[in-house]
Amino acid sequence: MEQIGTVISLDGSKIKVLFNTKLGCGGCAGCKSSCTTGTTFIKIENTINANIGDKVYVTMEKSSYNKMTYLAYLIPTIFLIVGIFIGVYLLKNELLAILIGFVLCFLTYFIFGKLFKNVDFKYKLTKVIK
């Protein structure tokens, strides 16, 4: 994943970078905040001596990107299917199956969002854009 952001503050050897979220962003754990406002931020080590107001190019390691993707899409989908399976095959009620599936899907977002809120995804500053 690659994104261009703006440095909004300096904090010792770290900087806070603000991003305008893309249309597909759903507020995953990698953002560490909700994307509903259209912006999000991360704190990252200032390895390129960026200053406040600089536009910077930020990349994420593929392993971190894959981890975020699994947490945001794959695991909730599995729990949705498991909930539907429970409702259809064990309880023999299709309406209840849909309800259980959605409840389990929602719970995974809530639980994994809390569990992985402080996970440090590996971001890297690449360059300052003039």
- Provide the spatial order of strands within the biggest beta sheet: 3-2-1-4-5
Span between termini = 21 Å
Note the total helix count: 2
Total strand segments? 5
User: Per DSSP, what share of the residues sits in E-state strands of 2 or more residues?
Assistant: 25-35%
Question: Class by helix and strand content?
Answer: alpha+beta
> Helical proportion?
25-40%
Largest sheet: 5 strands, antiparallel
The string of secondary-structure elements, in order, is EEEEHHE
Low-confidence stretches: none
On the 0 to 100 scale, the average pLDDT is 81
Main attributes of the structure:
130 residues; 5 strands; 2 helices; single chain; five-stranded antiparallel β-sheet; alpha+beta
Task: Explain what this protein looks like in three dimensions.
The protein is of the alpha+beta class and 130 residues long. The protein is built from two helices and five strands. Strands 3-2-1-4-5 form a five-stranded antiparallel β-sheet. A hairpin with a 2-residue loop joins strand 1 and strand 2. The protein is elongated. The model has no long low-confidence stretch (mean pLDDT 81).
